[in-house]
Amino acid sequence: MRDGHHMSAIHWITHSIGYRLAPELPDWLHAILHVVLIGAPVGLAVVAIYWAYGRLRKRLSTRRTLAATKVTHGVLGNHVYAFILRFSRRDQIALGAVGLLAMPILYASFELPKIIVNNVIASGHFPFKLLGHDISQSQYLLLLCFLFLLAIGANGILKYWINVHKGRVGERLLRRLRLTVFKRWRAGAGGEKRSEVIPIIAQEVEPIGGFAGDSFSLPIFQGGSFLTIVTFMFVQDPILGTAALSLLPLQLSIIPRLQRKVNALAWERVAEVRTLSGELGDQIAASTRSISDIRTVGARLKRIERVRWKIHRKKFLIKSLNNFLIALTPFFFYSIGGYLVIEERLSLGALVAVLAAYKNFSAPLRELFKYYQAAEDVRVRFDAVSEFLGVGHVSGPTKHPANG
User: Fold this and answer.
1) pLDDT digits 0-9 by tens, 150-166
2) How many CA atoms lie within 13 A of 326 on its CB side?
3) Rounded CA separation 352/277 (Å)
4) CA–CA separation, 221 vs 371, rounded Å?
5) C-alpha distances in Å from residue 30, one per residue of 1, 232, 348, 357
6) CA pair distance 266, 66, nearest whole angstrom
7) CB–CB of 353/113 below 8 Å?
8) CA distance 27 to 10
């Protein structure tokens, strides 16, 4: 049985966002509204505060460490983002600008289907005047459908341009990074691990180049798409907009923790591959061969296999958990949205539009989680390459042009 305090809380929240719910709500709806209107906002606030506190503490700790050890950063700079901006600043600005240009087009692609359902298919107010001409129902339908086709076509063209340009930026920076590592290695970098330069140039730096195109444009485009979709949902119905975010606190609190474990394994994998490369180099240089050499390499390959298997398991656990949470959210749409349509507090077109928007809602969110995974993996690789270049005697710094 619900008590008066809980009922007043739910009714106060819904009243503050413009809803006049019936005094007696169904028990199942009352429980769902508690999760959506109270649990989700509180969860998001807790996650945001915890994240901000963690970032602040990490930054202060890093500053204290640098001040105590007087660490100087190498030729690649102090962070992968600084290195990327150093050589592709103008490209990143162009990618970000085009990504922002796509947001109003994306919003229009969600709004037009709702207008088609509510103002054309379910409306009987035809014909009507448009620019001095009588427009029939079928003509208005054709016009809106053409505008919808134009919107999705323009959105597709912008996505194509962004993806092609991202690839170009990534390949250009990858070439520069490989050349930088090679020049520094020729100058003496690497110390006792100089033979590890082959896997570094061939494999370790490649994800860094691929990340260069996504480093700034992906958060802008996918983050902007996510905010555009959420804004559209809130405009249609504030409760449904909140419902779309109801499981986000769980995603933000669980998935990053699992990702940190994957990052630790990624670092272990990099170390194992480098060690294997060094052992192979030593065997190539040696004049003798023995069965112990085969056993040593076999044991190293087995360790690499074990680490990679752990990475695969945790990555697929993250993917499965994220997909489950994303698939669970429509439960709130069908339950809450269906009740609001029955009570005639929400149009059927708005509910259909929200459901259609949510089909696109999970895509940018999934891309943002993948971006977080890629960013952490690239950070590990970038730090490993920087560490390699900082070991040994180097005759002098490598000069780079400002951009290109």
Assistant:
1) 999 999 999 999 999 99
2) 18
3) 57
4) 12
5) 11, 25, 22, 25
6) 25
7) yes
8) 12
